[in-house]
Specification:
Layout (H helix, E strand, L loop, with lengths): L2 E6 L4 H5 L1 E2 L9 H14 L6 E4 L3 H14 L4 E2 L14 E2 H8 L2 H7 L12 H16 L5 E6 L1 H11 L17 E6 L5 E6 L1
Parallel strand pairs: 1-6, 3-4, 3-6
Antiparallel strand pairs: 1-7, 2-5, 7-8
Length: about 200
C-alpha cells in the first residue's frame, strides 16, 4: 500500500487578499513559489515516485516546481479540483456577503448543510476526492504526492479521521502544509499533519 503525501498549493495573491479563488486561473504568488521550493527540498527524503495535481494553474505550478527538483513528471486529476462555486470566484468575503446574503454565513456556521443549486457541497467534494484517494491506495507505488486545495484537503482529513463535515472548520491547513495518509495492513488509514 502506498503512502500519500497531500499538500495544499503554494501561497497566492488571493490567499493574501482573503479572496475566494475558486476555479479561477489564480497563479502562485512569488512568495508561494519560494515556499514550495523550500518544501520540495524537504520532500527529497520521501522517495516520491508520482506527483498528481488538481487541474488549476496554482496546483499545477506547485506540482511542477516540486517535480523539477525531484526529477519527476506531473499528472493532473480533476478529482482533486477546487470546489465548484462559480459565482464566488475572485470575490472577497465581504463581497460574497454583500452580494449573496446568507450564503457565506451558512458556509461558516453550517458546513454540512451548505448547499446552493448548481454548485458543489463539501460532501460532493469529499466524495469525488475520496474516490481518487482510494484508487491511489490500490496503486503499488510506495510514495505518491498529491497537490490540491484547502477544501479538498480538509474534506479528506475529516473522512480518514472519521469526523463529520460539521467539524470542517476545526482542520487547519495552510498553504504548503503537508498531510500524510498511510494505509496500514489492517485497512486503517492514519493521518499525520505537518504544520
Amino acid at each position: 500500500m502506498p503512502t500519500i503525501h497531500l499538500i495544499r498549493h503554494g501561497l497566492t495573491s488571493a490567499n493574501l487578499e482573503k479572496r475566494f479563488a475558486g476555479r479561477s486561473n489564480e497563479p502562485l504568488h512569488n512568495d508561494g513559489i519560494r515556499q514550495i521550493k523550500e518544501l520540495a527540498a524537504k520532500l527529497k527524503t520521501k522517495q516520491i515516485s508520482r506527483i498528481i495535481t488538481g487541474p488549476l494553474p496554482r496546483t499545477r505550478k506547485t506540482g511542477e516546481i516540486i517535480a523539477k527538483i525531484l526529477e519527476l513528471g506531473v499528472e493532473s486529476n480533476d478529482g482533486f479540483n477546487e470546489i465548484f462555486l462559480p459565482h464566488w470566484d475572485r470575490l472577497t468575503k465581504k463581497e460574497i456577503r454583500d452580494r449573496f446574503g446568507n450564503e457565506y454565513p451558512t458556509w461558516l456556521d453550517d458546513p454540512a448543510g451548505f448547499s446552493i443549486a448548481g454548485c458543489e457541497t463539501i460532501k460532493n467534494v469529499q466524495t469525488r476526492a475520496l474516490h481518487c484517494m482510494e484508487k491511489l491506495f490500490s496503486d503499488p507505488d510506495d510514495q505518491i504526492l498529491v497537490v490540491t486545495h484547502l477544501i479538498v484537503a480538509r474534506a479528506l482529513v475529516l473522512h480518514y479521521r472519521n469526523q463529520p463535515i460539521d467539524e470542517f472548520r476545526s482542520i487547519t491547513i495552510n498553504n504548503g502544509d503537508l498531510t500524510t495518509f498511510q494505509r496500514k495492513n489492517d485497512g486503517i488509514t492514519t493521518v499525520t499533519m505537518t504544520i
